[in-house]
Amino acid sequence: MVRFVLFFTVLAVLLALIFGGAVMVVLGASGTLYPDHALFPFQLAGEQTLYNLPGSRLTRANRALDFADRRLENLSTLTGTDAELVAAVFFTSSLNQAVQAASKVRPAESTELLTRLGYFSTVVDAVVKRLQIIPELYPDTDRALEDKLGTLNLLLQELTTRQVDLNRAAVLDVPFPPELLSAVNLSNFLMGNPITEDEHAQFSLIGRHAILECTSCHTTALRTGTPTQCEDCHATTLPPDHYTGECRACHSTVFWQAVHFEHSLVDSADCGSCHPTAKPENHFEAQ
Fold this sequence. Notes:
The chain has 287 residues and is mainly alpha-helical. The chain has 10 helices and no strands.
């Protein structure tokens, strides 16, 4: 009798696992759920099951890009809603996986894939520029996401003439607020946390720094002591009578010419300290 009960218990568990696995794969194949849906984790698990099916590196990279395209559509649809931020979490993880998978494809086989990835990154830029909640409430997250995408675009452009490592964009961290830690952990767990630690975390290779040869900065065998301040390398290119504050207050290494002044980075609340002659005649006397 005990053996009979044990047999049917094991059988029931196996059937439940098979049924659950089948449901996940069906959800993963359909891709109809959004990150704010209760069953979305099962869909994501199903997608990862499909991603890990046997296939060439090129096949797996195209699968990863298919799923990244889904997450982008999710983010676009949920822009302006309470789920915009969580959609950005899963999109970022999916983008990382697609970029890493693409970096493993042999150059001789990657032409069409890189063209597809380039078009995808263009669409991503348009979607990210329309975000509403993140830029207003989480500007650090917004800037990091733009830096990541800008770096990816520069790397893709560089790949048309020489080999560069796309993973330099994948490893760039996008900081999400603590209240989304559970979503970040869930995403990393279900997707296998494929991205390795940024070896340049002490000086992240963002923008044009990502397309430099290592020897451009590391001129000796020693990696320690390499300059990390803008003026250490670019003092000779500073225009005459230039503002003496930090470069990052206005510039990004992704879009150097697109100047945007971050007043929050200036240790002064006195406008007149920087703009003594810019005030129009008969202007109000206060700040």
